[in-house]
Structure prediction request, 224 residues.
Amino acid sequence: NAGVTQTPKFQVLKTGQSMTLQCAQDMNHNSMYWYRQDPGMGLRLIYYSASEGTTDKGEVPNGYNVSRLNKREFSLRLESAAPSQTSVYFCASGTGGHTGELFFGEGSRLTVL
Amino acid sequence: QKEVEQDPGPLSVPEGAIVSLNCTYSNSAFQYFMWYRQYSRKGPELLMYTYSSGNKEDGRFTAQVDKSSKYISLFIRDSQPSDSATYLCAVSGGSNYKLTFGKGTLLTVNP
Prediction:
């Protein structure tokens, strides 16, 4: 049982380049999330998808786009990367609602030069 | 004011010590309180979950919620080096199903 799988685990980009972070979960969860984690800032929600076919902005959506490809997959795209987007990105999934536990991937470490 | 405030530490204790980790929150609508543990270079994982006020115990871990003062705590008894990690509090409630996380406290338990 793989849980939540993120690819790639590491990436270095130059300013202005684009890339997509991929996330897949095998737990049949309805809800999926993208967070970024920065030193001193904690986990901040970028976008989330409460169910297949829906996406909503979180706390820090600027500079990002998402696609809920199907129930299993939720991708995060940086169209024109900026140094401020250097961070560790975590994908998570859950059953949704207040009592639903979130299951996180191992993270994708992105550096924008 | 941030919705959830958490002292980032770092906190360093000897093995066997009792550890107290704390968060405060501002929105009285929050009713669901969680503690996540994150080992270095890993994703967070749920450690404890509490609904409304009161205490919840799980082995060496106790989660405590005081809604009157908007204060949540995690106590670790007989701390072990394997407890060394970052601990993040998280809250949700009302119409907001999204979790709001604290910044996390880095704990090191020294053998």
Notes: The interface with chain A takes residues 6, 8, 31-32, 36, 41-46, 49, 51, 88, 92-93, 97-99, 101-104 of chain B (CB under 8 Å).
